[in-house]
Amino acid sequence: xxxxxxxxxxxxxxxxxxxxxxxxxxxxxxxxxxxxxxxxxxxxxxxxxxxxxxxxxxxxxxxxxxxxxxxxxxxxxxxxxxxxxxxxxxxxxxxxxxxxxx
Amino acid sequence: xxxxxxxxxxxxxxxxxxxxxxxxxxxxxxxxxxxxxxxxxxxxxxxxxxxxxxxxxxxxxxxxxxxxxxxxxxxxxxxxxxxxxxxxxxxxxxxxxxxxxxxxxxxxxxxxxxxxxxxxxxxxxxxxxxxxxxxxxxxxxxxxxxxxxxxxxxxxxxxxxxxxxxxxxxx
Lengths: 102, 171
Prior knowledge:
The complex is a heterodimer.
Chain A: H1 4-24, H2 28-52, H3 59-89
Helix pairs in contact in A: 1-2, 2-3
Chain B: H1 3-7, H2 11-29, H3 33-53, H4 57-81, H5 97-117, H6 131-140, H7 144-165
Helix pairs in contact in B: 2-3, 3-4
């Protein structure tokens, strides 16, 4: 059986990759993709803890069900926002979304 | 974690972890945003394989259903609706690549050092069975409030997405 720490290291690596994407992407859809990667890494950590630490109640797996729910809602609202912005700004790049500035 | 432990890990975990990391890097760094969405789908396939290794069979299937079946499809819809402007010939990164990479490497080093030094209260148990039964019972007993709040959240997300996606009439 693979020890817990290796799953945690895998989760950390994937989370950091997603964070790098959030920091460096210009495309707003790319930023959403990176956020989904980070949420996937969090899910991996929750499932690993529910396998190794909270083994009887499976609280980690229940929590990752909620994380997936929120991620799905966030993707739907985020993409609708991007499409609405695309209609008015004609761009999907995050540095073009400055219409709240005055 | 030390390197001899890493070498003794099962081959399935090594392959799935390698695939997940490679596809995550591809999803973050590829220039064509459409390829990024496909790499995201592949990464979630690899991650659900890791879930199977962790005896979370229900979550592995749910992950493929929700992410690959719904979220990635939604992203591909958004990409093809905006593609003429978001073409691959434009610059895809901002000026933060080097500071961002340094920050991420520092965070990774900190996380790995914490993971290696912390004393995790690991229980030695056999493989988990009947996860679906336990998850269903937990969702409707211990976590029933969160379950109901999640349903209201999904309804709000649905209404919000429809409202935002609606054609805005100019006055």
